[in-house]
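Internal tracking record. Fields below are filled automatically when a chain is submitted to the structure queue. Please do not edit lines marked as system-generated. If the sequence contains nonstandard residues, flag them in the REMARKS field before resubmitting.
Queue: standard
Priority: normal
Entity type: single polypeptide chain
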Amino acid sequence: MKIALISTMLIASMTAHASDDQCNQLVALERDMGKKLPVQIDEVTTVVELSVNCTTRVVKFVKHLSISGDELEEGFKERKQRQYVNLQCNRQGLATKGWTSTDYIYDKNLVLLMNLKATPAMCHNS
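SYSTEM-GENERATED OUTPUT FOLLOWS
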């Protein structure tokens, strides 16, 4: 729930104005959120980093789980990728606004479990 809330906060801070405005708003959000990180967003997930690259139009989250990758259900990664694309390609999503959104998710041992990604092109295929 809080994952969607953070994405919604990102989206709410953006408008459909020119990309410079979007960039400025996202950079301001990056700066403001950076002061509050790390932040636990659900029972097992903590956001530890948010970065915005206006040149490549990429918004990157780094998240840590308090469980090991072995504890994830079969099909978890595939299901999360589908959900991620649906979230970022919805009417207000970052990918819909022309940005690539990516989450790097690590387990409790800091092993990279998955890299979720949604691009504007994926919105036409979802």
